[in-house]
Specification:
The complex is a heterodimer of chains A (about 290) and B (about 300). Chain A has about 290 residues and is mainly alpha-helical. Chain A is about 75% helix and about 0% strand. Chain A contains eleven helices and two strands; from the N terminus they run ααββααααααααα. With about 300 residues, chain B is an alpha/beta fold. Chain B has two domains: about 110 residues, Periplasmic binding protein-like II (D-Maltodextrin-Binding Protein, domain 2, 3-Layer(aba) Sandwich), CATH 3.40.190; about 140 residues, Periplasmic binding protein-like II (D-Maltodextrin-Binding Protein, domain 2, 3-Layer(aba) Sandwich), CATH 3.40.190. In chain B, about 35% of the residues lie in helices and about 20% in strands. In chain B, the strands form two sheets. Chain B has an eight-stranded mixed β-sheet, sandwiched between helices. A three-stranded mixed β-sheet of chain B has the order 5-9-10. Chain B starts with 5 loop residues before the first helix and ends in a 12-residue tail after the last helix. The chains are: A mainly alpha (about 290), B alpha/beta (about 300). The interface between A and B is large, with 43 and 49 residues.
């Protein structure tokens, strides 16, 4: 009675085929990541040493280490985070918790989406005009980080807003019914329950900020500066630009060096992401629903 | 619900990261911002690196981008010293003056522009006139056989012209010295964004010809000698022929400061022009401005 018909068998075959196809596509996704990491470890691995990480470049940047670039990238990322996270989270809170759905908020949403689509080189030119020249920050960490902050603001806003919206409305209503104000509700209920999503936004921002080259090239990153920055108005070297420079501008760079720089840059991003992910998992574990 | 205040968590995190970033403080020092020519950028880097030992209290921040980038930064007043592989134009000097930055010019060395071809290319000499009909607007040379040259490995016979992007001082000088002020480049060249990129491309392309600073020459490219006029001597590019003026496409390299340099900037310029600084430019494959003994 339940014997498979020809139609059934065909369906099962097609089903299996699609399963395989999707599996294959998924594997294709991992392939580039694995290849990039593999090549970097094999070819850049020999370059890595304490001296490479903790000394300035020497001999026309063909020897020595990358310390100023490493510290410079940390500076750029941290200052960009300090500038963009409070603004981004506040904007997302307003849009998600306070704003009525009217023409203005729809326009703001449209602006955020468009800001996310602006190419990084355009942000770079904006940064030169606004921060370097108009606000007279000069080419400095401050100007570069603010440019990066403007560029990554949409990422933070969108991630935060989405994570705020995962907190069920019933939680808020319960809170309001107890007589809590909106801000009390946000502080005690909404933020604690959405912090892991906000961190996701920050992770994305860190990865993007540390890898960007165009926005910092004209606003604050130096080709060569053998000293560590001492404040936000100093110029600095940065890993991404250093990688570009030693691969395309400097003659006679030993082959393992650019790979080493790329490996350190990727490890740095992975490490920063790792910390955030661990923190996120910890917070999620404490979630009560 | 017992949860740590997100605000406290955040501030702790921010503080921790800020502390990591803040390590490496120290005494105050002056920073000289030095930006411009890609031709000069590696020399500028070498100067900055060596100057760190001479005057540890002065930091020189070097940035590339092209002569045009350096000059516009000088006009905007966002740089202390602009590097340029061409002279500032009168219009640019006017603009800088308008912003209260009187540009002061220093010749810091000379550069021979070498013509590069693939090592398999049998071309041994080339005249300025030939280069002009190849690169200039209205020129009609497209194939190697038009020059009577057969290049092994270049099946198409097409001459791949390698040039530079138009804010490059090398581009501007090549136009001045080879094409003449009034003549434009012909379209269809590969415009590279760095001196090293030109040499890299020519190394790997049998059909290619390109021009770049002599300092970027490698063992894997060939540099034909260059002749000015049909019966002039054919001179090979070298530091010596650039110094004695016999090589036809050699140009001065400049540093510009905004106003007569003072303090740390003055000391730096003086050091660049000293024998020690000039020997560094010599080691990098450029010609020093005067004869120096660099043994």
């Amino acid at each position: 009675m339940f014997e498979a018909t020809a139609q059934n068998r065909r369906n099962r075959k097609v089903e299996g085929l699609f399963r395989l196809l999707f599996l294959w596509m998924t594997c294709m996704l991992i392939l580039p990541v694995a290849l990039v990491l593999g090549v970097l470890i094999v070819r850049g691995g020999p370059a890595i040493s304490w001296e490479f990480l903790f000394s300035p470049p020497t001999n026309g940047m063909t020897a020595g280490g990358i310390l100023p670039a490493l510290v410079g990238t940390v500076w750029l990322v941290v200052v960009a985070l300090i500038a963009s996270v409070p603004v981004g989270v506040a904007a997302a809170l307003y849009l998600s918790e306070y704003a009525p759905d009217n023409r203005l908020t729809r326009a703001i949403n449209l602006a955020i989406i468009n800001l996310a689509g602006v190419p990084s080189i355009v942000h770079a030119l904006f940064g030169v005009g606004a921060f370097v020249i108009f606000f007279r920050f000069g080419t400095s960490i401050l100007a570069a980080s603010l440019t990066l902050a403007v560029m990554t603001l949409p990422v933070v806003i969108v991630a935060t807003r989405e994570s705020l919206q995962t907190v069920p409305l019933a939680f808020r209503e319960a809170c309001w019914n107890m007589g809590a104000t909106r801000w009390q509700t946000i502080r005690k209920i909404v933020l604690p329950n959405s912090i892991s999503g906000i961190l996701t936004g920050v992770i994305l921002e860190v990865s993007r900020t540390s890898g960007e080259t165009a926005p910092i090239m004209f606003t604050g990153a130096a080709f060569f500066l053998p000293f560590l920055p001492q404040g936000v108005l100093d110029q600095t070297m940065a890993m991404s630009l250093h990688l570009f420079v030693i691969s395309t501008q400097v003659p006679d760079v030993p082959e393992h060096m650019p790979f080493g720089v790329a490996l350190v840059l990727i490890s740095m991003v992975l490490a920063m992401n790792g910390i955030s992910i661990a923190f996120r998992v910890y917070l999620r574990g404490r979630k009560k629903w | 619900m017992k949860t740590a205040s997100p605000i406290r968590t955040w501030s702790t995190l921010a503080l921790a990261v800020a502390l990591i970033a803040a390590c490496g403080g120290g005494s105050s020092r002056s920073v000289i911002q030095n930006k411009g020519s890609d031709t000069l950028v590696n020399v500028a880097q070498a100067w900055a690196e060596n100057y760190a030992a001479v005057a540890p209290e002065t930091a020189v921040a070097v940035t590339g981008g092209g002569s045009g980038t350096g000059i516009s930064a000088m006009i905007n007043g966002t740089v202390d010293i602009a590097n340029s592989s061409r002279k500032m134009k009168d219009s640019e000097i006017e603009l800088a003056r308008g912003n209260g930055n009187e540009p002061i010019e220093f010749v810091v060395g000379f550069d021979a522009l070498a013509v590069f071809v693939h090592p398999d290319n049998p071309l041994d000499e080339v005249s300025l006139e030939q280069l002009a009909t190849l690169y200039g607007e209205g020129g009609d040379v497209d194939t190697w056989s038009q020059w009577g040259v057969e290049v092994p490995g270049c099946g198409s016979d097409e001459i791949v012209r390698v040039s530079r992007q138009n804010n490059s001082g090398t581009y501007v000088y090549f136009r001045e010295a080879v094409l003449g002020d009034q003549r434009d480049f012909r379209l269809g060249s590969r415009d590279m964004h760095g001196s090293k990129d030109v040499v890299d491309l020519v190394e790997n392309t049998p059909c290619a010809i390109g021009y770049s600073g002599l300092a970027y020459a490698t063992d894997h490219v060939k540099m034909p000698c260059v002749r000015k006029g049909e019966d002039g001597d054919c001179v090979s590019p070298s530091v010596d022929t650039a110094i004695d003026g016999s090589y036809p496409i050699a140009r001065p390299l400049f540093m510009y400061t905004a106003g007569e340099p003072q303090g740390a900037i003055r000391e730096y310029i003086d050091w660049v022009l000293s024998d020690e600084g000039q020997c560094i430019i010599y080691e990098k494959g450029y010609a020093p401005r005067t004869d120096v003994d660099c043994s």
